[in-house]
Amino acid sequence: MPTAPGTARLPAATGLPGAVLLSGIVGSTAYGFAHAGSDTDRLGLFAAPTEEFHGLHRPAESRVTTEPDLTLHEAAKWCRLALTCNPTASELAWLPDDLYEVRTPLGDELIAIRTSFLSAKAVRNSYLGYADQQFRKLLTRDPADPVARRRAAKHARHLVRLVEQGVGLHETGENVVRLPEPERVRALGERIADHPALAEPLLADAAERLSRPGALPAEPDPRPAEAWLRRVRAAHWTPPVPPAR
After folding, report:
1. Beta strand pairing call for 62-66 and 19-26
2. Are 76 and 21 in contact (CB under 8 A)?
3. Comparing C-alpha atoms, which of 89, 40, 28 is closest to residue 69?
């Protein structure tokens, strides 16, 4: 199983009260957009100690740091996000093997049930919804401003990526994180950044294809996630020490 040197420092780096079960490199590096100077984004999930759920205050559900760029979600929160087909969270279970940095047996179990989180309606709502957000951001950018133009190109790239990943997921049932033609997507993004109207037929075509019957069920199956979470809680339970008599 891939485990990068120094992964034991992930919890300490964020003050995390728990164990990282699965983490890897996501974002531009995963999609194939990275270039010299690109940030390296990491995403993972952790299990808080089960006894922490039994007190007055529930444990934190997410930890985010910027140095390094790392987002960690507690196992239950990640499952809730994945059941809505949140594009950012979901890709953690679909990364190419070489991008995983922490991969435990429970992490492998989660990867094995990843298709149970999928549903046609959630993929349509999430991927098309996020792509539409990127389009709206494009419309507010000033192309004459070099900084705004670079941001517009980033929004446009991710618009194209979300559309292609969402349609592919709907039609095949597989989430392809590493794009097969990242340079084509980058070039199309550059054109859309200069002419946002070029994105309108792309979004319309995606909406039409996502409305057709595809490879995904109408609703997700939460039972595998529930069973997996119970195994996580059992594995991370430390019985209390009885008081001394």
Report:
1. unpaired
2. no
3. 40
Contact 43, 95 (CB under 8 A): no
Question: What is the token pair recorded at 101?
Answer: 């940095």
Termini Cα distance of the chain? 46
Report d(CA 125, CA 220) in Å as an integer: 14
Note the pTM of the prediction, 2 decimals. 0.89
Instruction: Identify the bridge partners of residue 45 per DSSP, sorted by sequence position.
Output: 22, 73
Average pLDDT per block of 10 residues along the chain, 245 residues long: 39 61 95 84 95 90 88 97 97 97 97 98 98 94 85 95 98 97 95 96 98 97 98 93 82
- Predicted pLDDT at 5: 32
Q: Which letter does DSSP use for residue 91 in this model?
A: G
C-alpha separations of 100 from 25, 82, 95 in Å: 7, 18, 7
- What number of residues does the chain have? 245
